[in-house]
Amino acid sequence: MGAVEWVADENNYECPLSMETQKIAKEELREDKNTRDQALEQMRNWIKMNPRIQNCRLDARFLLRFLRCKKFNVPMAQEATERYLLLRQVYQQAFHTLDITEPNMEELLSLGYLFAAPGRDAKGRRVIIARPGVFDPHKYTNVDMCKIHAITYETLMEDEESQVRGYVHFTDGAGVSFPHLTLFTPKEAVRIVKNGERTVPMRHKEVYGINSHPSVKFALDFGMSLISEKIRNRVKIYTSLEDAINHKLDVTMLPKEYGGTIPMKEMIDLWRKELLAIKPTLLNNDKMNVCLELYSEKAREGAVSALKQGFGCSSVGSNDTTMCGISGSFRKLEVD
């Protein structure tokens, strides 16, 4: 077998973090040059020796997103990396060809369904704004929803300052109604939330929600029950923007329509430029792949039980070679 041509090669790493961010990385994540160099070497050797990983990025920026999120606990970072590679391959419809110029993606972006505000807040974090109510569940599918989230988060995770500083989420629930809730079955919702928290290496620092309609309260409660207590404690839900402002929500990073200074359309246009600049990197990620038949059926389905067990391959049977759970997990929503 010839030498593997890796999606992105090992690179001589020059730390791009500001001095202030390096200090935060040291205090919060145990990161310094020595820890980083050793951990990167361990990650790269593990990828090269892992029979289940056929191709992967070896550049520091990619591997550090997992190491930083797991505070340089190398075995945990390795598991998160492998789980990420497996899930993005199993659910290719949602995680491959992350191209913002596709018509549905461009429409959802223009509507302001999901975008990041330009600049950073007072603590150096990017602010992600979500307006799920503008998503027409009769026009778009759950694949579209997953894909625009993947484009957004993948773009943000490429930035190393953000890997350390983390993210703030602001969601306006106006317009969300029952049809939105039927995009995913409860089982799918559980898998998405549980896998997302374990697999997507993002440090979620603060989460704010406004305009949550009483009719979807049960769904909100269900969602809250799925996330870890650590993140649950960072979530604050307000009845309205006015209520949030009365509770001292800082609106300076939000669009002008929500009390900030920059109009939403302008924010979206700036974000589109960021997405277009990173597009070649996101498309190149599609070359990463794992050997699916070396995973258990449960692991391939993203079952929560597989999350708890970790990645043992002892459970792989000889007849367990079909890809499971795909057609069922992403079905096009049929509407009368």
TrEMBL record:
The highest taxon in the source lineage is Eukaryota
- The residue ranges of the CRAL-TRIO domain are 102-266
Gene Ontology cellular component list: membrane
CDD domains per record: SEC14 (cd00170)
Q: Which SUPFAM superfamilies match?
A: CRAL/TRIO domain, CRAL/TRIO N-terminal domain
In the UniProt record, the signal sequence range is none
For this entry, the protein name equals CRAL-TRIO domain-containing protein
Organism name: Atta cephalotes
